[in-house]
Predict the 3D structure of the following.
Amino acid sequence: MTQTVEFGYTTGQSVSLQLFNLGSDTVVGSGSATESSNRTSIYSSSFSGISPSIYRAVVYKNGVGVANGFVNIESNSGVYDVEESKGNVHVVKSGAVEDIFSTYNISESYPSIGANGTPAQILYFLQQMFGDFSVDGTTITVKKLDGTTAATFSIDSETYPTERTRAT
């Protein structure tokens, strides 16, 4: 079975690709890269036996690393793209999206004020903000599924609000 890794680089070059375990100098795969005949600047390298995981992919020209990124090898065969490495990169495995948007029940939870929420917390918060809330004067109360309070917001006017600020 063949695992093909594709990446972009300057057209007309003689380059190779090496895959490394994250945080390691251990090379898990290495091979020459071939430029696509119909998609210039797109190169591919073929591997076999690479265990499914996320790897750092480094492009070499004349033995010098000239570009790098991440590739998520998901199975023993397939075509995988290298994601360019820019600044603080966070790689999300494909299963994470399936875990969030599956038919499984997600535990009800809400993010704290000023805190980053998990995807599940944000989904519940949005669902309840748009679906189950009450307005009393200048206070909007977002309710949990059981009817208790999930969060409150203050608005700047009872009749023509232009601002909403989370209070709890």
